[in-house]
Amino acid sequence: MLLVLCVDLDDDLGRKTGLETPAVGRDAVEAGAVALATADPEDSDVNVLFEGVHLYDDLAPEETVEVAAVTGLEGSDVQANRAVGEEVDEVLAGLQTGEEVRAVVVTDGAQDESVLPVIRSRVRIDSVRRVVVRQAQDLESMYYTIKQVLNDPETRGTILVPLGVLLLIYPLAVLASFLGLPGAVLGLSSAALGLYALFRGLGLADVVDDLVERARDSLYTGRVTLITYVVAAALLLIGGVEGVNRLAEYRQTAGGSLPVTSVVAALVNGAATWFAAAGLTSSVGQITDEYLHDQFEWQYLNAPFYVLAIAAVLYALSGFFLQTVSLPTLAAVLTGGTLMSVLSTLAFAIIEGREESEDGDVRAA
């Protein structure tokens, strides 16, 4: 048996005519179509109901056919789909047939077709007929597609944010021209678009969300690293400034243009001690947090020694290029830094190995 099912997801038929649904049978569906056309001639669901009657008349001579109109609810798509499912169950329960029921679903666009999975879970669907007025071909589907795009948070942010920035450029440029700052506004607008394009292109949204979540967790759980990272960032900033100052001093002393190696060496020499302090601060904070949360391992203590060794090597090497550190001193620092890192690694590895063996002996006992 074939069931021609006319779907009115937002219940125009019931709201505008007062008729009860589901409407089952050719006469009931035709009466509903006439009533809806009388109440609202521009409603596209009128075409859906008449198409259902038309299909019934075409197929009735060839096989057993029934036609029915089911409606949902206005407003909520979820509740509307549930209402359609309940009315489909009511229609199927009222069919007096021992044959397998198959359905031809008639809709007026993509919005009503969102209920197809609900219908398919109850009856096999042979085909879907979308009815639209010829003068407005695909108009409702276009409207529904645009509506879905604007309701999706990710798509909305991708499309509307750059569009909003572009639309703001002209009024901001007019305001800037009035204030005498046209270049600044255009530059800021271009920078905003560029940063947004890089942000979306590199997929940094998840990274930023993860950083924010970790910062919030650190704040609520009292992690020391939250403070030490802030202090380390301040020290890095100071180190950068000191590096630039050292470069300015060296350029003034040299009294001319500097080779690339001297520029890099001056920047590193001025910033090395501050960068080392930042590394020590952050590593001590991380070690403290691991200890407080019972996740401490001896190998974590390698970090401060590595930071000191690397800072000493960079400071001495940059000083050598700036001719403030002699070659024997550079060799001594390189040797000392290497020995410090190797000995710390060996020492903490031995300590951790002994602790693991002692724990194993305790468990065996």
TrEMBL record:
Domain of life: Archaea
Transmembrane regions: 157-179, 185-208, 220-240, 260-282, 303-323, 329-351
InterPro entries reported in the protein's UniProt record: DUF373 (IPR007254)
Keywords: Membrane, Transmembrane, Transmembrane helix
PANTHER family, per database record: DUF373 FAMILY PROTEIN (PTHR38815:SF1), HYPOTHETICAL MEMBRANE PROTEIN, CONSERVED, DUF373 FAMILY (PTHR38815)
Identification of the protein by name: DUF373 family protein
